[in-house]
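Q: Could you write out the predicted structure for this multi-component system? I'm mainly interested in how the pieces pack against one another.
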Amino acid sequence: MARVLRSRFDARDPQAQDNRAAMLGALAEIGDLHAQVARGGGAVDPAKAHATVARHRARGKLLPRERIALLLDLDAAFLELSPLAGWGTDDSLGGGIVTGIGQVSGVECVISANDPTVKAGSLSPTSVAKAIRAMEIARSNRLPLISLTESGGADLTRQVDVFTAGGQTFRDITRLSAAGVPTITLVFGSSTAGGAYVPGMSDYVVLQRQAARVYLGGPPLVKMAIDEDADDEALGGAEMHARVSGLADYLAEDELDALRIGRDIVAHLHHQRLGPGPTQSARDPRYAIDDLLGIASADLRIPFEAREVLARILDGSEFDEFKPLYGTTLVAGWGAISGFPIGVLANNGILFSEEANKGAQFIQLCDRIGVPILFAQNITGFMVGTRYERGGIIKDGAKLINAVSNCGVPKITLMMGASYGAGNYAMAGRSYDPRFVFSWPNHRIAVMGPRQLAGVMTIVARQKTEAAGQEFDEAAFAPMRDAFEQQVEQQSTALFATGRLWDDGIIDPRDTRTVMAIALSAIHNAPIRSTDAFGVLRM
Amino acid sequence: MMPSTAPIRRLLVANRGEIAMRVFRTAHDLGIECVAIFSTADTGAPYVGESDIAVHLPGTSSAQTYLDGAAVIAAARRAGADAIHPGYGFLSENADFAAAVIAAGLTWIGPSPDCIRAMALKVQAKAIAAAAGVPLAPGAELPADADDAALLRIGEDVGYPLLVKASAGGGGRGMRIVAEPSLLLESVASARREAVSAFGDGTVFAERYLVGARHVEVQVFGDQHGDVVHLFERECSVQRRHQKVIEEAPSPGITEATRGQLLTSATALARSIGYVGAGTVEFLVFGSGADQGACFLEMNTRLQVEHPVTEAITGIDLVAWQIAVAQGEPLPLGQDQIQVRGAAVEARLYAEDPSDGFAPAPGRIERFGLPEPAIAGIRIDAGVADGSLITTHYDPMLAKVIAHGPTRQVAVARLSMALRRMRLHGPTSNRDSLVAILQHPVFASGEATTDFLERFAQVLDPVPDPDAIQRHLLAVSMARATVLREMSLARATVLREASGQQPPSIPLGWRNVPAARQVQCWQRRGETKVHTLRYARNAAGLQADVLITRQSSGADVFTAMGVDLVDPVVQVLDQRLEGDRWTVSVDIAIAGVSARHLVEWSTGSQPGPQGAVQAFVDDGLVGTTWSEVPLLAREAMHEADRHATTPVPGTITVVQVSDGDIVEPGQTLVVLESMKMEHRITAPETGRVVRVRAQVGDAVEAHAVVVELAPVDDGDA
């Protein structure tokens, strides 16, 4: 029988209270950013954003989140993906596009909606990356894609960074279709030039009367190219596409009608889930999930017990631990979230050879029995030093990375703290194709810790100076060292990572179980497949 | 008259609905077998199921069935019945029918044909009453040969306002209220016309119209041995169009002196005509205190609709007495053994819309009844049950609800509570209006007079408690969301396939980023406005507001300002599907005030667009009915789709319409020949031909408009 994890966490502990305060502070900051994205308008200044939104509404149009709310089944959950993409970049926060997973007509779908109140829905590099990521989630999990389109096309001022990457979006739509994943596009407004291929490549196209404008070249471009004075409606109106060109499969009277048709289309897909699904009823954990705020360290130099986290996200706090006495800094075992069985690998410290071997074996076991794996990362990296190099930590680490890379079962990665160095790779970092990556606000990610990185840089600088026969001036180097450390610190934060789409969003630790349940439920739309070949394991 | 002593073994009730059920109940109690007759429209009606033998009378109209005396007697013969109880209405006061029943050798449960005749003609009845010492309102006959001047003189003598009544009339037909002399002649003429057509007798008379009077009636009972007793009085002042709405006993507004006078007069009248069986002598009572007076209205020679209030205060089963008397037995109790205990009130529940001129509201009753726990002193005489169909063929009365209590106040309060607590799911009813009457201070103080509903017309369209409406809106919305979610989980997700049958532990309506609120639109029956509930759920609970809009179009929904619901807390306790009916119980608290709501709807009965449902919400204090407004409904057909267009290119071979024609959906307008195939171009919907664009021989492109159509407006009809 599964063992019930026993918690030793005391919320009254000063450390826990500090962690909690820091986490709530970070969540407040993220909450403000979410609110900024959600209100639309694309401006930091609420008054300015409000004016833009008001202009949009005055045209009788709905905001993308309103469209999504109406498209979704009543009381269905909606997990918005990468809401803060573009943070810390030149692009608009959120990238002027809303993506997420929600249930439509009883079917979990990926929804991708342009926000026409953000730079007229024009596409920045962030928009493109976010759309591509959403399509990747649709493809890998076999979720129908519904695009709610109203976009001015590529942000022409950014065409250098958008043009080539943007092509992939159209390729991916048709590849979804080829993979048997239905694609549906509802067009509420402009869908110009490359944007015209969003409906063009989709299986089902709904155009809204008097609103949709779908053309390769708009009137100005047509005038430039062939000196034709073209009328919007005749050139790419919904009526024309419904009656003449045949691009539109359905002509919608208004936005609500378009959404209704979209729901009807999903209903008639008869989409079947191909995963095995949950094997038991969902049961609440025995410990309050709220405790996670105090458990996760604000200062990542202070380790925290991974089992305390598992006791708050696994069904019934039950955990079948594997090799509990071996390779103890990597916790491995089986449990369930919302009834979905799951294998867990969670860091309880730095990785040694034993941990690497244990992890590699555990991944193979999960792969054999077709159980998805949750990687709960709080890792500063692999152990270094002569003793460990002699012990073969590279080849042991390679085994783990081999297993992570080649296993067939889906992976979910939870960034619950540090993610440094090769530890990021071995624990299914973004490059290792986890189906989903979610981060807690205290998450830090870099090749190594800022202080270590600055320290390493100092040592390298000293060696270089001394090799040149000069004396290293520690005091003179200090400002450079501090500046570097500060820069690394800034570029290691959860916000920096989410801004670059290194994850699928920062989540409130208290939502972890819900987010994991949604992710697992999405994953089970596709068959869970084991691999028939790992790479050569170096012995 | 020789007393008849034949014991009744099998009784046919020449009626339907609640009164048939009522008579069956007592007959069965007495060990008498019961025969029902039923029209085609009443096939499967609850009262038919209560009978031991049922005889089908083919046809649906009353004239073909319940009013066809010969058919009823033939049915009694075929079924082997030895007695007929006429109930009320239909043939109950038809002397010829009574005579035919007796002639057929059957026992007639009612007064003799002579008594019925004596009281049927009002002019004659008044003369008999006067002879028996019964007070009369000033009045006079309006002879058919009187000239205009003579009529006006009679009017002057009677005094205004006055009533012109048909002598043979009843139920308000052939009756006119005349406020002043200038309107008299026209009213007399029209009352005569109506009397001739309705009763075959144009005799009319004038009677002083007593404004602000009370309607008080005395229940009398006579046996075949010449004994007559009274069972005290009832008051039925709350009336609409001379039809009683609320009835009670005893009368709250007559003095002891008046009561004595009425009881004495009524028994004297009954005695003077040798009355046998149950009868009611009706009076108008005017004034108060020592100035109170009364005058005779008419005598009804049958069991009254409102007899249960008399049964409640006297403890006497009037139908049992009717049967006893018809079998020749003496009256079971003497006058001094008949006592009044407490007070009783009856309300007539109708499928009608009081706010729309009492328009009948036919339809299917999805659920009818008073849920547990029982309320003391409540009796329900119903003709309907779950699933009954209310048709337009007969009276749309659903039930009589009667409350008895130690005092009038308790009886009224019990009746109000029973009405409010009743599950009444289906057509529009007068329930809320009845409750408003019972709760009206004028009624509560016993001061209601026959003009009550005209004076206090607001009770016909009572203003609902806004807090209750908000709670009910929230309840119906949350119930709907829960069931839709349940259904979609059942349909589509593997989560149902797991052993546990539980939805996943994902909170309802969960969001990780602030999102637009979810929206549901509902329309409450009787209102044109749309209630839009917008809600979001987060860790802190539910945030919800309500927008009231006059229309359901998208723009308003999102721009109007809403009313915030204060701290709404919703707990869906249970949802069950039985047959095609969902029942969801929901606890709703707003601003800390909590109530349990039962929300019900049928998935099959009212399939609207997008599966929109009509739902019923009951919280024990008020019941409301809501129609889902499909938010994503398709707008009206676009202009261009209304015209007739060519499906393919071809040549016009026939044109069958011309400008101005009204066309029906599917009607052929134009015939097109294309590739040796003949295509009929038909009207997509009812419309008016604005212009025919095609002529025979024209070669046309595909999708060309050949006939322009416009919607039919009133001017076209």
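A: Regarding packing and overall arrangement: Chain A touches chain B through 65 residues (CB under 8 Å).
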